[in-house]
Amino acid sequence: MVRIRARELGLDFGTLPTGKFNAITDVPGVTVGHVSLIQGQGKLIPGQGPVRTGVTAILPHGGNLYTQKCPAAVFPYNGYGKSIGMMYIEELGICENPILITNTLSIGAALEGGIDWVLEHNPGVGISDRTPNISVFECDDGYLNDIRGRHVKKEHAWQAIATATGGQVPEGNVGAGVGMSAFAYKSGVGTSSRIVKNSLGSWTLGVLMVCNFGKREDLIIKGIPFGRMFPLNQAPLIGNSNITIIATDAPLNCPQLKRLAKRPELGLSRVGGISRWGSGDIDMVFSNYPWIHPQAQPIIIDNAKFLDSFIEAVVDASEETCLNALFQAETIVGVDNHVREKLPVEQIIAYLSSANRLRPF
């Protein structure tokens, strides 16, 4: 069976419509780039492989991020992580450079690649202009990848930034998701989007995740505890984390964005996420409204009338994004022939259909 996204198989995720690609790139100006590193097989030889890793870049808009900053917020729902740049965003409420995601021991290389990119495009940095803040997030892919080998280099981060594009976003075993797992199944990168309409206009909100968390028995899909229904075949829980990046073109300020940054875990709880000890569940959100509408007058928003629909969008899209990461991922064999099996989508869809849990086509 060809891997198909969750919604296309009949699963429902709230009432808000999706964007054209049902991806974070539906937000005007947002682009995503992946570099996937898959090399070797068999026994682990630290420093040599096998390699099952990569890096993913998210760019908030197509301009110079260092000079055209975006309001932003972060929230460490469960702060077991080694991310870079969060303190700056927490203090100043801005995103000013590419957002990078990779494996835990490669955050330094990703940081260097991001810095090189900023220096290349901003000759005054470090001379007449202050130094940049790069955002780098991580998950542990050591069950499948020779993580000690630190095979992600700064050139790979640069490449992910330089090749970032809009449109359809590859999911599953790509970029930072190559070596990631969720609920002891193969997982990786997922994405989704929502359109929010109100009296002030029509806005887009998109979510991208790298999913790497959860025990097999935790998994729930549309209220059915599938994690307890399938045998556990050579799939111990190794490493935890979930990185969520939320983008919108809505004119939200930093406190409002902070509220949205606290909501992805509500969507993840629908699929069985409980933020176990050791899980770095980190959420970041930005608005590129100032860049999309540079001549527009500032909009003063009444939270009570405006923000609820965005909260709904974050929660519903987060649930769908996580399942897209699982539904799109393929079985992969990594170090020491460790296997992460793909989610048994055919069995799950058959069960949901028989239980009338699918949307009629």
Q: Which SSEs are present, and which pair or pack?
A:
Elements: E1 31-39, E2 51-59, E3 70-79, H1 86-92, E4 94-95, E5 99-103, H2 107-121, E6 135-139, H3 154-162, E7 181-182, E8 185-186, E9 189-198, E10 201-212, E11 241-248, H4 254-261, H5 264-270, E12 280-287, H6 289-292, H7 303-306, H8 308-328, E13 332-333, E14 339-340, H9 345-354
Parallel strand pairs: 5-6, 11-12
Antiparallel strand pairs: 1-2, 2-5, 3-4, 3-12, 7-8, 9-10, 10-11, 13-14
Helix pairs in contact: 2-3, 5-8
Count of the domains: 1
| Arrangement of strands in the largest sheet | 4-3-12-11-10-9
Over all CA atoms, what is the radius of gyration?
A: 19 Å
- What's the pLDDT, averaged over the residues? 93
N to C succession of SSEs: EEEHEEHEHEEEEEHHEHHHEEH
Strand element count: 14
Level of helix content? 10-25%
CATH topology: L-amino peptidase D-ALA esterase/amidase
Task: Based on Cα principal axes, name the global outline.
Answer: globular
CATH superfamily: L-amino peptidase D-ALA esterase/amidase
Q: Distance between the terminal alpha carbons, to the nearest Å?
A: 19 Å
The portion of residues forming beta strands comes to 15-25%
In terms of per-residue confidence, which ranges show pLDDT below 50 for 5 or more consecutive residues?
none
- Reading off the top of the CATH hierarchy, the class is best stated as Alpha Beta
Biggest beta sheet attributes = 6 strands, mixed
At CATH level 2, the architecture is 4-Layer Sandwich
Structural class: alpha+beta
Tally of helical runs: 9
